[in-house]
Amino acid sequence: FKGGDTCEYLLSSGRFLGEKVWQPHSCMMHKYKNSEAKNCLIDKHVVFIGDSRIRQLFYSFIKLINPQVKEEGIKHGNIPFEDKSASIKVDFLWYPEVNGSMRQRIKSWTEGSVAKPHIIVVGAATWSIKIHNGSNEALAQYKINITSIAPLLEKLAISSDVYWVLQDPVYEDMLSESRKMITNEKIDAYNEAAVRILNSSSRNSKAKVKVFSVSKLIAQETIMKSVDGLHLPESSRDTNAMILMNVYCNKIMKPIDGSCCQPQPPLTLIQKIAFCFFTLSIIGYLIISLIHRNNYRKNKSCTDLESGEEKKPVISTPNVSTLEILLHCFCKLGLIMTYFYLCDRANLFMKENKFYTHSSFFIPIIYILVLGVFYTENTKETKVLNREQTDEWKGWMQLVILIYHISGASTFLPVYMHIRVLVAAYLFQTGYGHFSYFWIKGDFGVYRVCQVLFRLNFLVVVLCIVMDRPYQFYYFVPLVTVWFMIIYATLAVWPQIVQKKANGNCLWHFGLLLKLICLLTCIYFLSYSQGAFEKIFSFWPLSKCFELNGNVYEWWFRWKLDRYVVFHGMLFAFIYLALQKHQMISEGKGDPLFSNRVSNVLLFISIVSFLTYSIWASSCKNKTECNELHPSVSVVQILAFILIRNIPGYVRSVYSSFFAWFGKISLELFICQYHIWLAADTKGILVLIPGYPMFNVLVSTFIFVCVAHEISQITNDLAQIVVPKDNSTLLKRLLCIAGFFSGLHFFSAMQDQSRH
Fold this sequence. Notes:
Elements: H1 6-12, E1 14-17, E2 21-24, H2 34-41, E3 45-50, H3 52-65, E4 79-83, E5 88-94, H4 100-110, E6 119-123, H5 126-131, H6 136-157, E7 161-165, H7 184-202, E8 210-212, H8 214-222, H9 234-253, H10 269-299, H11 302-307, H12 318-344, E9 350-353, H13 358-374, E10 376-378, H14 387-407, H15 413-441, H16 446-466, H17 476-492, H18 499-504, H19 507-527, H20 530-538, H21 542-546, H22 553-561, H23 565-581, H24 596-618, H25 623-646, H26 649-652, E11 654-656, H27 657-664, H28 666-676, E12 678-679, E13 684-687, H29 693-722, H30 727-755
Parallel strand pairs: 3-5, 3-6, 6-7, 7-8
Antiparallel strand pairs: 1-2, 4-5, 9-13, 10-11, 12-13
Family: Belongs to the PC-esterase family. CASD1 subfamily.
Transmembrane segments: 273-291, 325-343, 355-375, 395-416, 446-466, 473-495, 507-526, 561-579, 599-617, 659-680, 692-711, 731-750
EC number: 2.3.1.45
């Protein structure tokens, strides 16, 4: 950890990812849209002072505000620009040399009541080299002139942002005869003089002129593409303009994916309370552990020591045991949440932007698939979608989704469309799994509901508190939670139709189908009635859970994207269980699911359907249009996969224990990646070990997987305590949980008031 301000890194260091994507050292750069640039610079005055290179930077900067601007101004004169809609003024002032004229202009802003620009960008040197034929006398005069200007710039830097742009290198082979005297050696001498004078002068001043030296690094990589050897190609100057925008605007706009120049957010009241709670839990657990260890040593006999048997300490009452488990869980959770906070809220670890290449996505995919096949074992049962098979399915899908996120593959539309199918497959399993449980068991008790809700939401609630994020931010958990409640309501509402009842009278099957048709009708209505959907979820307290950035549009979009797939999962479960009950399928070890002829036909259709969907997804040209079709057609590839995986008896009888292990912690992996594997709320990549990308990914992945596994264990342990089977005890726990959320809402309201 080098420390220091990320602004300094943004202005001075970085590297190219590929050909055009600039990666600052240690932080992430946001790509500003026109609307964002206008909001940041509203009522601001920006001035660029210098030569033709600064004029290039000026044009790239104003194109961030208005892309329609043409470079048609006077070449050797002042160029004004104004955006009246946002009251933004940006001026270019032609001062190609650092001389008395430039000094007089800068001095005018320091005197009296003259309005000072909010941002001043200055730089010049090549004209001095050219006019004076690269003489040493010109360099000496340049030093004298900068020495006289430096105090004025520092005075302006007290109230304005002042940047001195160092001179970019030239491509000497392409320079015209009139510019041959502009050599990189001369440019380095002028830059060295400017940096030394500005740095020595700033030691005695309150404010500092920021040296914009990163353009030199960018130019070193791209100047060969210059048209004349002197001026940068358009992509390079656009990068410089975007860096300027990040330096000034990130602290104002606070973009999630722009960590450069952003101060560490202050701790909220709720975060402080959570910190105190976890600290007390750690202290409490240590005290109880010490007491029990001392008691254990006193009560332990000599024979136990000789036999080498491990004997648990004697606990006097069950209450102490429960308290110790609670404190132990919260102790571990507190340490884990500290790591979460340090990774993604404190400015301790570096963050970098994602950069997609085909190799960064497909090579890891091939690697994990080979590993998965290597760990093949026999299943305990050979039913369709048995527990081991569904864990395996969740596992490999989760690993693919993780690789998709860290590689930034969302920019490649065919990959995006296939990942959408994997998310849909998760929801398909939600519909299949919960329907099967309620249909077979007929258990609609409060205990079952509370267990599922606790396991789904515990980690997300803790992260909402510790990371200061809304519930809807972790969109997948609200999605599966709401769908679980919809499945429960559909089957639990009168008349409750379960398998046992339906076996006695076939008419109950039609009753269940009628329920499913009603559910489908409601889904269809809400998907095409955004107003009705938003009204339902805008009521308090639902609005507190499902609003993001002040509205529920994001929630509606996420819900709508996979609106039919849970219904498809429920319908598949109903048909499969009916076929199983009537012994129309064969699920013996090694046996095909149907007769050989039917199995072969279905297998052929499934493979063709699977490939057809992949071809369609790979030929997608427009994300919006493909997203519109996705809810209706994603089930094709999901069903094709299920049939391919289950029709052949041998394939159904084996599973990958490697994928299944990850499948058991898939929810924790999906949520934890937001902050301790990725960074800046999934927009970037966490860098624990800078300079070694592969080693960094290995280390951060190992920690990330261990943490996800540990959180899964903690959730399971706490679920046994927080959600007991005894109804009276459960009611008391629910009242406590209601009190907890009431307190959380109260403190949240206090936070909102203090922010406003």
